[in-house]
Fold this sequence. Notes:
Elements: H1 3-38, H2 44-70, H3 83-95, E1 101-107, H4 110-117, H5 119-139, E2 146-151, E3 154-159, H6 163-176, E4 179-180, E5 183-184, E6 187-193, H7 200-212, E7 224-225, H8 230-242, E8 246-255, E9 260-271, E10 277-278, H9 280-290, H10 293-308, E11 316-320, H11 323-326, H12 329-342, E12 349-353, H13 362-375, E13 378-384, H14 390-396, E14 401-404, H15 407-410, H16 415-430, E15 434-437, H17 443-452, E16 456-457, E17 467-468, H18 469-476
Amino acid sequence: MLYSESQERARRFRLALRMGIPILLLIGIIVTYIVKQNRFVPSEFEIVLILTALFISTYFLFFLINLGQAETYIDRMTGAFNRDSLLKILSNRMNSRSVHSIVLLRLDNLPFINDHFGIDRGDKLLRVFVHLLDEFIKLNGIKEPLIGRYHGGDFILGFQTPIKKSLEIVEKFESAYREIDQIAVEYKYAGIDMDGTSDMSIIINHLYDTISQQKNSVPQKSKTEKKINPGTLEHEIIDAINSEKLLLHYIPTLDTHTKKIELFEVGVRLETLHSGILPPKKFIPVVNRLGLEREFDEVLFKAVCKDAKRVSKNIRFTFNISPFSLRNEIFLESIKKIAVQEGVSYKRIIIELFENRPFKDIKRYKVILDELRELGIEFALDNFGAQNASFEYIKKLPVDMVQFDKEFTLSHTDSRVNKLLYAYIQACKSMKVKTLLKWVDSEENLQRFTAFGVDYLQGFAISNRPFDSETLIKKYTGE
């Protein structure tokens, strides 16, 4: 038992004892009065019997009081249902069909609020938020809103209405309360109909997967999955990985110096039996949640190598590998084995790195990457300049290429963005790091960014569509 748990148990018992003493005294007075009134002189055995019964009754009373203190329906900070009681109530109401839809509502910038305004202010905001949400839902015709705090700033809402109506209520709330307690609040939310779904853990995991796909504010259409059994999707993703049912597509990348296309960025989708072909935003959150990053990345690496060995040896490939896989010794040994079996040179592989936060043990990470680099594998920082860890990584890791965030291309008319991009390109050149820019959609932009000194370009100006495996092999075999 943790020290904190033992202290909490002692606190509850002391509280129960203080509450039970008056009851104990009352029982003692009543017994004394009865004895005096009846002039009853109990024997020693009867005294022991009475005291034993009194002790057992009192202890049982203390136990009930302590149990009452330990068990509670509500989250003490916000007043909403706590996680355990929420799940029980949702399960009961699902069985009785009194809950028709569930919404996961997240205060997305709560960590920022806690960091910049203090935890006390953040806690106060959560309390105010719950009461505002409760009142708002009631005003929209729902008498007893089911609101539970699931984790941190994540709240689960149970509605007696179909998902479309439920999301409309949440969307109205989002519009009405963009500021709470004079603090700007950012929301993310996702919902699901309860038709054909019974496992509460699968439902909530599905909602978290949907939330994780949302980068910023997204249309309502993509926030909901109607009449879907999330468990089916989960199993199909697992089956697709185990069966190696990956569909690769290759995005041509122009070398601005040679004017040739000898580099392809690899995209991947999963082929499932009932859910169709899934894009990464649908299956990657599930893969990450299930801890299947290594298994998926091994299958991806193998699929790329199988195509690579069938095309010209001048063709190179760049694709994303999870940082969790790269830090796994089993994965490292596995890709070495795959490359040898398929007869593909490591020098044809560029692994893309992308993380939202810097890895704490970056020295250990560098050792792993150096080991792969010695084999000939190169590394690229993907989405450089976005809100990620790329600035920290380019300082400390052996990076060979920088792939700029698409915002640099989309905002090319902004002079400040252009100046920043040019400065980054020059800095990379000084470090002998190659640069790649995506979403180049016109000849004018192609010439502009070539003049900037970018080494590689992607987009409609280079190719109006990616190649599938068959097209790639047919076009580049034997070159």
